[in-house]
Amino acid sequence: xxxxxxxxxxxxxxxxxxxxxxxxxxxxxxxxxxxxxxxxxxxxxxxxxxxxxxxxxxxxxxxxxxxxxxxxxxxxxxxxxxxxxxxxxxxxxxxxxxxxxxxxxxxxxxxxxxxxxxxxxxxxxxxxxxxxxxxxxxxxxxxxxxxxxxxxxxxx
Length: 156
Hints:
By secondary structure, the protein is α/β, with parallel strands linked by helices. The chain has a single domain (2-154), classed as Aconitase, domain 4, CATH 3.20.19. 28% of the residues lie in helices and 21% in strands. It has helices spanning 16-19, 30-35, 68-75, 88-97, 137-145, 148-154, and strands spanning 2-9, 53-56, 80-83, 101-103, 113-117, 122-125, 128-131. Strands 4-3-2-1-5-6-7 form a seven-stranded mixed β-sheet. Helix 3 crosses helix 4 and helix 5 crosses helix 6.
C-alpha cells in the first residue's frame, strides 16, 4: 500500500483536542470535523489537508482517546500520517478507520514531497528514504480494506 502527497509538518505532542476541538463533537457530521481540523493550532490548515501527508514528531495523537480526531483527518482527505511515535490509541484508531500511519523519524519542511510504502516499510521526503517501523500483515490488510468495519464486512 502506497501513498504520496505534500507534507504538512507538525511538532511533538500533537493532542487529539488540537486535531478536533471538543466543541465540534456535538455533531456527528464528519464534514464539520474535517472543516475544523487543527483550527486552534492554525485556522488556515484544514483546507490544506486534502491530499497531504502529516509528518509529526513524538507522541502524535496524545490526549483523549477520541476516535473523531482520526476520522476528522481521514474525512479531510489526509493520505497518511508519519510520526516518530504515536499514542497507542491514536495509532490503533487510525488503522481501524483506514488511515495509514507509519512510525519513522524523518525531517521535513512544509510542502516537501512525501511518499510511503507500507509493504516495503519506508518513507521518502524529497527523495531521501527513511526506514519505517513495519506494520503487521493484519494491520496492512485492515488498511487496504479501508478500515476495520469494511474488513470484517468482507470476511463474514
